[in-house]
Design a protein that fits this description.
The protein is of the alpha+beta class. Helices cover 35% and strands 19% of the residues. Strands 1, 2, 3, 4, 5, 6, 7 and 8 form an eight-stranded antiparallel β-sheet that branches. It is globular, with a radius of gyration of 19 Å.
């Protein structure tokens, strides 16, 4: 009898750990969603919650704008860069606010994706328009531009197609690279470290993919408020499923960082994918 009870307890513990980031049945990233035939229940759902006005994190300023090169940071022996890069546990990274420069807030323009399958191209347009704006360039953040990018990608929503489109058609405005981390070989800490380094080195937004309802979904990430040990950490982003509320502060949303990681892990891709867009 005791043996049976012990076995049941062990199975229960295993079940609890396995439920941390459960995989859902999802459609493939490249399968087109036909907007006309999706009911409200079937449509992708916007992620996170809008940031309340009293959130102190967004009242602090990072005013200096500039692009730091990763090589220069490494050569200078930057303490925080090395701390993140060499971290072996979530407790190795101290509490820190990883944020874009405020220029990106002031230059932010939003467009709502025109249909249920355009989050990739729309997030790209939002992010590219934002990078262009802080560099004094003009880039249309409009529905027409979303369809222009879609056509330029041959209708593909692959993140690598967005990268290639950037480095050909939009190469005079921004430059791009993609980073992909294979899920079967990557733990949660490596994903957090990658996002932290993006924000720490570039102080610029990036595009990544999570799970929205039963669909893969692109969003544009602007900040991570890291609490040592993960618990209490938040990630801040904008979602192309949302209507334009008039400013960055009103469009920005947040989620618990662990919940966001689970949404990244549970989408149908075999990789954690990131699109980094930087000024020319």
């Amino acid at each position: 009898m005791k043996t049976r009870i012990i076995v049941m307890l062990i199975m229960g513990i295993i079940t609890l750990f396995g439920a941390g980031c459960q995989k859902e049945d999802v459609v493939d990233e490249n399968q087109n969603l036909v907007d006309d035939v999706l009911s409200d229940e079937e449509r992708p759902k916007s992620l996170g919650e809008y940031v309340p006005e009293e959130d102190q994190f967004f009242k602090e300023n990072v005013l200096d704008y500039g692009h730091k090169s990763e090589n220069n940071i490494q050569k200078s022996g930057d303490f925080m860069y090395n701390t993140i890069n060499d971290a072996v546990s979530a407790l190795s990274i101290p509490t820190y606010a990883f944020r874009c420069y405020d220029n990106y807030k002031w230059g932010y323009r939003h467009v709502r994706q025109p249909d249920g399958s355009s989050c990739s191209w729309t997030s790209y347009v939002i992010c590219t328009g934002n990078v262009a704006a802080v560099c004094g360039q003009t880039y249309p953040v409009t529905v027409n531009q979303v369809y222009t990018v879609k056509n330029g990608c041959g209708g593909s929503s692959l993140i690598t197609k967005l990268r290639d489109y950037t480095n050909t058609t939009d190469r005079n405005v921004v430059k791009a690279r993609t980073i992909s981390l294979q899920k079967s070989m990557t733990d949660y800490l490596a994903v957090f470290k990658q996002m932290m380094l993006f924000l720490y080195v570039n102080r610029a937004p990036f595009v990544t993919i999570a799970l929205s309802g039963n669909y893969t979904h692109y969003v544009t990430v602007y900040s991570i408020y890291w609490q040592k040990g993960v618990v209490g950490s938040k990630i801040y982003f904008t979602d192309s499923l949302d209507p334009d509320r008039g400013s960055f502060d009103k469009n920005v949303k947040y989620m618990d960082l662990w919940d966001f990681y689970c949404a990244m892990k549970n989408n149908s891709n075999s990789y954690y994918n990131f699109l980094e867009l930087l000024p020319r």
